[in-house]
């Protein structure tokens, strides 16, 4: 069956041409009417019998098209500012169906495929243009290896999985405790492979719990992993403030179980995904991530004794735009209902990075990073949350505070106006790799100094013979954490 829908491809370069060829071959998605491009050397010519019209700003407004017709933006190298301009041209031309091909950093195998296109969302036109990294070059160290991703169904884990598809891994293990999210990413990766995207790694979905120590030792022995990217964590700050024991149980002891199992089975590379909330933490979640960082540094010393080529490290960064439960999806949902958009405080600001950029940098760090070294992604300048809210309203064709209101609701438990990315002692230094910084060791708070704290937390999270009065006791847990972490105590008492 042939679809008579007309398709206009914005960009007549390699990506646009590949999309056009695929549409012509499959026929069921519609017919390409024309390319739109700004290149004077292409305008007026035909490519595979498809005319190239331009410039984009001129022709977009004069096109005659039906409501069924669709525009596909196929310029993966374009900065966000240019994408925003093109999007505005197309919306003014009354295109109601606009799709986009991801940026270069997201395109697997440096090829463009129709299946990779998706509807334009605020992520495509907000924030800075991400750094471009060659995945093929970055992922050489994983070729022929067995790679495990924990939290593979989450925002970071699933994007790592997509990018790893081109890495030439022998096996790609997708580990998580939520069957629906693991099912979704497993299905997506298999469809991508069927469409010819990525290499033919064997994909293995695994359902399990990090806090189940016996199971983690069993599964790591069975999988024979070479590299682990640890993305699994409970992360919603207010929710974890209400469930502090669960946060420590999963994030701290789950990480410890995984690390111990990796060490026992001589895993070559271990990369923990960490967060700015681990810096001088003011929430239980922040403490849990700080302790996870310390556990990785402790494990690195054991790993070095086992094999000088092994590398255990963590990569810390700030907020990622569009992650599950983050501010952007919330704003999008609030827009659909007519607002208001809710912001905690007019002065609150955060460092932001796109999920694909963060993941490509994590993968790069995993290859070039050294054992026992802590890394920080260069996040650029912080952005006020209220500014993001105003931009999203404007992008959606409304006027802030007039058509769609912004309501300030106050800071929630465990939140602060600014999130520092490092302590004074860590003093980040540039590396030879763009956007990857190296942190100095925190000599004031060495990893081994937290061993006693972790021991104290164990009987609260896990029932033992003589600790029934401690088991799941959140008040005792909070007191122990406040006694051990001055920043948490100061924040709590200040409240």
User: What is the number of domains?
Assistant: 3
The percent range for strand residues is 15-25%
Rg, please?
24 Å
The CATH architecture of the largest domain comes to 3-Layer(aba) Sandwich
Kindly report the oligomeric state of this protein.
Answer: single chain
Summarize the biggest pleated sheet: 9 strands, mixed
**Total beta strands:** 22
Number of helices: 16
Q: What's the CATH topology label of the largest domain? A: Rossmann fold
| Average pLDDT score | 89
- Runs in which pLDDT lies below 50 for 5 or more consecutive residues are none
CATH class of the largest domain: Alpha Beta
Strand order in space, largest sheet: 10-9-8-11-12-13-18-22-21
**By helix and strand content, what is the structural category?**
alpha/beta
| Basic shape | globular
Gap between N and C termini: 65 Å
Helix content: 25-40%
In the CATH hierarchy, what is the superfamily of the largest domain? Answer: NAD(P)-binding Rossmann-like Domain
Question: Could you walk me through the main structural features you see in this protein, from its secondary elements to its overall organization?
Answer:
The strands form five sheets. A nine-stranded mixed sheet has the order 10-9-8-11-12-13-18-22-21, sandwiched between helices. Strands 3-4-2-1-5-6-7 form a seven-stranded mixed sheet, with helices on both faces. It has a two-stranded parallel ribbon with strand order 14-17. By secondary structure, the protein is α/β, with parallel strands linked by helices. Helix 9 packs parallel to helix 10, helix 14 runs antiparallel to helix 15 and helix 15 crosses helix 16. It contains 16 helices and 22 strands. It has three domains: 119 residues, NAD(P)-binding Rossmann-like Domain (Rossmann fold), CATH 3.40.50.720; 275 residues, NAD(P)-binding Rossmann-like Domain (Rossmann fold, 3-Layer(aba) Sandwich); 45 residues, no CATH class. The longest helix has 23 residues. The termini are far apart. Helix content is 38%, strand content 18%.
